[in-house]
Every structure is written in structure tokens, then in C-alpha cells.
């Protein structure tokens, strides 16, 4: 019974861990989407500002393009980092699921073994009960045989010692 509880608690702990990983993965996805959206908004705003200012100087375009390239590079690095984190979370979730499957298999094997043992115990109980009944019957027969023997001995003694009675 204690083994089953230990296994059940491990199962619950693994399920909680899987749920935590799942929440963290969803959180990472949301962060990735927010970062992507923020970058798109920043790029759109910078393009709007550039169009509205109407300045066509080559230098401003070059610095804008450089800043856009730098921000795109930063965004790409952030996205790669988030992607790596999500990959790690997925790998941990897979390992947790594998461990949970192994634990479930072990619990099922133990359950089957307990069932077979209970059948053996029931058979043993029936045999012991049967042998106890036989022992009682044998004791009763031995007692009756002893009583008959003693009665016979007394009868013979009575006839030999006291023939007139």
C-alpha cells in the first residue's frame, strides 16, 4: 500500500512538473509574440516618422537602415534565445512524460503481481481451513477409538476379575 502511495505521489509530482513546463512554454511563446509585435510596431513607427519628416538625406537613411539592421539583429537573437528555451522546455516535458510512462508501467506490473499473490493467499487460506477441519475430525475419531478401547479393556477386566457381577 505504501509503495502505491509513493508511486502515486511521484505520478502527481511528475504531472505538476509537466504542467509547470507547459505553463512556462506558453509564457515563453507569449513573450516571443510580444517581442515580435513590439519590433514590428517600432519598425512601422520609424518608417512612418521617416515618411512624415520628408527628409531624404542619405545620411539619415543610412543611420536608420543601420539602426533597423541592428534592431533586427537584436530581435533575431532574442527570438533564437526564446526558441532555444522552448526547445529545452519541450525536451524536459518529453523526459517527464517518459518517466511518467515508466512509473505507470511499474505500478501496473506491481498491481498484477499483487492480484496473483492474493489468489495464492486465498488458495492457502482454503487449504488451511480444510486441514483444520480434518485435524478436528481426526482428533474426534482418535478420542472415540480410545474410549472404545478403554471400554473394551474395562469390560474384559470386569469379566475376568469379577465374573459373578
Low-confidence stretches: 1-5
Instruction: Note the total helix count.
Output: 2
Largest sheet features: none
Order of helices and strands: HH
Helix content: over 70%
Question: What is the 3D shape?
Answer: rod-shaped
Strand content: under 5%
Distance between the termini: 74 Å
State Rg: 45 Å
Tell me which oligomeric state these chains represent: single chain
What is the count of β-strands?
0
- The class by helix and strand makeup works out as mainly alpha
- Name the average pLDDT: 84
Describe the fold and architecture.
The structure is a single chain. This protein has 165 residues and is mainly α. It is built from two helices and no strands. It has helices at residues 2-53, 58-161. Helix 1 (2-53) packs antiparallel against helix 2 (58-161). It starts with a helix and ends with a helix. The relative contact order is 0.08.
Amino acid at each position: 500500500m505504501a509503495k502505491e502511495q509513493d508511486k502515486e505521489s511521484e505520478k502527481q509530482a511528475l504531472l505538476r512538473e509537466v504542467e509547470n513546463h507547459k505553463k512556462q512554454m506558453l509564457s515563453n511563446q507569449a513573450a516571443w509574440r510580444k517581442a515580435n509585435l513590439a519590433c514590428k510596431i517600432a519598425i512601422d513607427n520609424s518608417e512612418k516618422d521617416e515618411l512624415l519628416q520628408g527628409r531624404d538625406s542619405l545620411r539619415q537613411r543610412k543611420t536608420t537602415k543601420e539602426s533597423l539592421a541592428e534592431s533586427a539583429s537584436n530581435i533575431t537573437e532574442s527570438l533564437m534565445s526564446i526558441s532555444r528555451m522552448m526547445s529545452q522546455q519541450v525536451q524536459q516535458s518529453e523526459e517527464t512524460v517518459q518517466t511518467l510512462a515508466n512509473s505507470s508501467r511499474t505500478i501496473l506490473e506491481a498491481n498484477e503481481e499483487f492480484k496473483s499473490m492474493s489468489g495464492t493467499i486465498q488458495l492457502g487460506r482454503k487449504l488451511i481451513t480444510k486441514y483444520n477441519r480434518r485435524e478436528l475430525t481426526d482428533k474426534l475419531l482418535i478420542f472415540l477409538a480410545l474410549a472404545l478401547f478403554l471400554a473394551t479393556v474395562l469390560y474384559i477386566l470386569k469379566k475376568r476379575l469379577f465374573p459373578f457381577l
